[in-house]
């Protein structure tokens, strides 16, 4: 009788178990890698905007009138749809919408964080700024969010101010609660479980 060629059931089961173990390790590691990469991109954009705000103040003696639209022009010279100059809001990554968005970045006046610096409002002095990079997650936008990015759940949101505050948290960091003059003057504007960056 000839020897049969092929794999036994035991050999196939061992291969399946090995593949399952590798997948159980690789998938969570990949998700964490993606979270760290998007958080790094948001931090980089916040720091770039902060640097441009300081340049604006050096030329104009105030942050008033800052519009970062020039930073987000495409190859044709038109402003990217990711930056709304009127609202002083940026979505990351650039030129992406819907569930693919990872962060929403807001630039506001430091003294009155409900107002933008590029407006003509007489109530703002333009002597300070606040930048909030909010993760596009159900943590920040609620369980009913249909355009939230699932990979962003559990990722950091960032806050930076002209007074030196640089904090981040994985808990909710919303516009309504964070961009509030009283909150920004508190010891922990990003919440109790926040950390500096």
UniProtKB/TrEMBL annotation:
The chain crosses the membrane at residues 6-27. The keyword Transmembrane helix applies. The keyword DNA repair does not apply. This is Prepilin-type N-terminal cleavage/methylation domain-containing protein. It comes from Acinetobacter wuhouensis. It comes from the Bacteria. GO terms for biological process: protein secretion by the type II secretion system; type IV pilus assembly. Keywords: Membrane, Methylation, Transmembrane, Transmembrane helix. InterPro entries: Bac_GSPG_pilin, N_methyl_site, PilE-like, Pilin-like. GO terms for cellular component: type II protein secretion system complex.
């Amino acid at each position: 009788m000839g020897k049969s060629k092929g794999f036994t059931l035991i050999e196939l089961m061992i291969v399946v178990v090995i593949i399952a173990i590798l997948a159980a390790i690789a998938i969570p590691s990949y998700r964490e890698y993606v979270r760290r990469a998007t958080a790094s991109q948001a931090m980089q954009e916040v720091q770039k905007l902060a640097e441009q705000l300081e340049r604006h103040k050096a030329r104009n003696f105030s942050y008033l009138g800052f519009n970062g639209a020039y930073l987000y022009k495409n190859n044709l010279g038109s402003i990217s749809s990711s930056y709304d100059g009127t609202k002083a809001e940026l979505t990351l990554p650039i030129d992406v919408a819907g569930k693919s968005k990872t962060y929403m970045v807001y630039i506001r006046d430091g003294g009155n964080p409900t107002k933008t610096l590029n407006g003509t409002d007489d109530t703002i002095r333009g002597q300070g700024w606040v930048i909030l990079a909010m993760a596009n997650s159900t943590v920040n936008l609620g369980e009913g969010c249909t355009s939230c990015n699932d990979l962003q759940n559990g990722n950091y949101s960032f806050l930076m101010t002209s007074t030196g505050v640089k904090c981040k948290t994985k808990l909710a960091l919303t516009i309504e609660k964070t961009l509030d003059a009283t909150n920004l003057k508190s010891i922990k504007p990003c919440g109790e479980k926040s950390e500096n960056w």
